[in-house]
Amino acid sequence: GNSIESVARVMMQFMNRAYPAIYVRLAHSGNGVFRYDANVAFVNEKLRPAIARDRNAVAETHGDTWFKRFKLTVCLSDGTPARLNALMNAFRDMKPYLAHAFQLKRFWQTGVLATSDVDIQRWARAESAPPTSVRDIPRVFSNSGAGASTSDVHTGLVNATVTADMVREMRKHRDAFRKVSDDAQSSNSHELLSFWLRKTRKPVLAVLCVVKPGSTHKSKSTLTPTDYEFHKGVNLEVSMPTGSLCSERNAIGNALASNPSLRRSDMFGIAVLSLRTKDIDGGGASGTTGMTGGASTSAAGMAGNSNPLPPQETPHLSSNGGVSRDVSFADLNGLCAPVGNGAVDSVTDTPSDDLAGLNPLKPCGACKEWLLKIAEVNPGFRVVMFTDVTCKEVFVKEVGQC
How far apart are CA 302 and CA 399, in angstroms? Predict the structure, then answer.
């Protein structure tokens, strides 16, 4: 039949003997592996409850740090489309790591699994729209797709340039808050944490890009980067009974106050960045690590940006030479390759959890309702998010993808 239960039992016996410290459990789905409804039932009725039980046990032991101790990995190397789709949908909220061994035939033929044939990706990086390096914005977002007209190509180039400008404006916005923090170390001159953000002490910045009032009469195909302007916002958390004002809605309000004739169709997109408390709490040099450089204002300028790219992301090595499970992205090329006299190079995980903070930060429920109203007449409205406070990599999504 379709069952590979006997193979799974052999694998369990191997794991128990080779790695006795690892506890292995089998979950048998029966023979309905090719039927989508059978897979959904199996995953939700048998597999997810078992994994949720383990997650809850970790949370009970470690409290609010449980998510740093609990890791779920889904293997993409085999299985029917129905099974993989059911797994991805059922565990989306747990944000599993994804392991992909994409040269299985070489493994079958040689019996050796090359580390260069294995990708391990964190959930945020494995979505259909992965993060894009700021340097690559012109190349990635100027592509208008197959069958594009000359006008479409022009619009694509303009959109790429304006997206790069949004990153530049966000970096300026971020640096302004950092400067206030640095200046306050000697004068104690601001109330960001003591009043404006006193409830959560978590600053969130927003930059809204809109068409300038004098250019709204133009068609979108004739707009140029100089036809756009930017409005900035920050979250405000002064009183819990009145609720917080999110940075996205703050920026939209600022844009409307500046131009009462603003239309939803005039809005290009909004960028959102979460800062860390130490970024505005006199963190000094320790809070500014990696937060240098800026985005160019044109597609041509972006290609020549002198800012260094983030270092190649590579996994931590555990004490036994294996790959740590806390990597954001594991490019296993050269892992454990001998260096010099056979030693193993030390490698680091970047971007670190410290730099990431709450990023990438999607709009909250209230803000998304606002953005969905904008998308009703402007479906191309984009949301720009960042991998970390350095603003070197971005996620660019439409509202429905957030």
Answer: 25
Question: 267: which strand partners?
Answer: 210
DSSP summary character for residue 177: H
Q: Which residues pair with 317 in a beta bridge?
A: 323
Structural tokens at position 65: 């740090």
Q: Identify the bridge partners of residue 384 per DSSP, sorted by sequence position.
A: 271, 396
Q: Per the structure block, which two tokens stand in for 218?
A: 């133009």
What tokens were used for 224?
Answer: 């140029």
How far from the centroid of its chain's Cα atoms is residue 65's Cα?
Answer: 20
| Alpha-carbon span 270 to 242, nearest angstrom | 25
Read off the pLDDT of residues 112-129 as tens digits, 9 standing for 90 and up: 777 888 888 877 666 656
For residue 99, the cross-strand partners are: 75, 120
Helix 247-258 and helix 365-375, axial crossing angle in degrees, nearest 10: 40
pLDDT tens, position by position, 30-82: 776 677 888 888 888 888 888 888 888 888 888 888 888 898 988 887 677 88
**pTM here?**
0.62
